[in-house]
């Protein structure tokens, strides 16, 4: 079963004369364990595509199946259900300000069924170590740099063992070496846990981790030159 299957997906913003189509007839399939990178100029619709696949928006036109669930025609509850299997790393981190790095990551592990408090805490610590933050576990977000906050957000998404990971420019705030490590980590996750990864990036340093490179232009998907 595909992790993501899109058929003829289109999307518009605005109404009447202000209506503007930003996605035009996109078809795409992503299989478990596959790492797909999506690139394209600013405003071409990448984030819109990611939020539709992430069940954060209502599908207007076309067919969308994510982790075996049809999203076109799905109500709020069904979309909520689908989101449980999806890890999302968007720009802006969305960390809870009053929780330490460890507690923020533990929120991700809290979604795992059947794990006791200690196991969830150990899981959170292990992911923080994996993203190079073993010395920052007790810090609050405002004591972390932008890159460190991004790594906490990544650890939180991974701690929930998602079956699909959607990431919008996950390496934008990271230096070259850390960005590379984080992307290698995402790739390992994809392989080890058969998690599909769809990542929007402008970062040319990480293009080689992809199984597949996709390019978008004006709301359309083009097969990118490898
Ligand atoms: N909520 C919204 N209402 C109206 N227009 C929107 C909305 N969100 C995005 N748009 C417009 O839709 C188009 C596609 O936006 P989107 O954010 O999907 O592009 P993007 O490729 O992710 O851009 P970037 O690389 O700059 O993040 C843009 O022209 C944007 O201004």
Provide an overview of this structure.
This protein has 6 helices and 10 strands, in the order βββαββαβαααβαβββ. The strands form 2 sheets. It has a 6-stranded mixed β-sheet with strand order 6-7-8-3-9-10, sandwiched between helices. Strands 2-1-4-5 form a 4-stranded antiparallel β-sheet, covered by helices on one side. Helix 3 (101-109) packs across helix 4. By secondary structure, it is an alpha/beta fold. A hairpin with a 2-residue loop joins strand 9 (212-217) and strand 10. The chain has a domain at 1-85 and 196-226: P-loop containing nucleotide triphosphate hydrolases (Rossmann fold, 3-Layer(aba) Sandwich). The chain has helices at 46-53, 76-83, 101-109, 117-130, 146-159, 176-193; strands at 4-13, 20-30, 35-39, 61-66, 69-70, 86-89, 164-168, 196-200, 212-217, 220-223. It starts with a strand and ends with a strand. The mean pLDDT is 89. Helices cover 31% and strands 26% of the residues. Bound molecules: adenosine-5'-triphosphate. Adenosine-5'-triphosphate binds next to helix 1. This is ABC-transporter, ATP-binding component. GO terms for molecular function: ATP binding; ATP hydrolysis activity; transmembrane transporter activity. Keywords: ATP-binding, Nucleotide-binding, Transport. InterPro entries: AAA+_ATPase (IPR003593), ABC_heterocyst_DevA (IPR014324), ABC_transporter-like_ATP-bd (IPR003439), ABC_transporter-like_CS (IPR017871), ABC_transpr_LolD-like (IPR015854), MacB-like_ATP-bd (IPR017911), P-loop_NTPase (IPR027417). Residues 4-226 form the ABC transporter domain.
């Amino acid at each position: 079963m595909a992790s993501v299957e899109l058929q003829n997906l289109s999307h518009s913003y605005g109404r009447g004369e202000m209506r503007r189509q930003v996605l035009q007839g996109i078809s795409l399939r992503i299989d478990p364990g596959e790492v797909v990178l999506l690139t394209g100029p600013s405003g071409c619709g990448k984030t819109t595509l990611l939020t539709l696949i992430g069940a954060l928006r209502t599908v207007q036109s076309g067919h969308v199946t994510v982790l075996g669930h049809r999203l076109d025609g799905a109500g709020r509850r069904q979309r909520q259900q689908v989101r449980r299997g999806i890890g999302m790393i968007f720009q802006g981190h969305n960390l809870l300000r009053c929780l330490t790095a460890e507690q923020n990551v533990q929120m991700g592990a809290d979604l795992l069924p059947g794990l006791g408090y200690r196991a969830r805490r150990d899981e959170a610590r292990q992911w923080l170590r994996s993203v190079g933050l073993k010395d920052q576990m007790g810090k609050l977000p405002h004591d972390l740099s932008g890159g460190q906050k991004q790594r906490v957000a990544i650890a939180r998404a991974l701690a929930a063992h998602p079956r699909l990971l959607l990431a919008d420019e996950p390496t934008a705030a990271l230096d070259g070496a850390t960005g590379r490590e984080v992307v290698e980590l995402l790739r390992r996750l994809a392989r080890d846990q058969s998690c599909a990864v769809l990542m929007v990036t402008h970062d040319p340093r990480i293009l080689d981790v992809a199984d597949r490179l996709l390019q978008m232009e004006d709301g359309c998907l083009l097969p990118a030159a490898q």
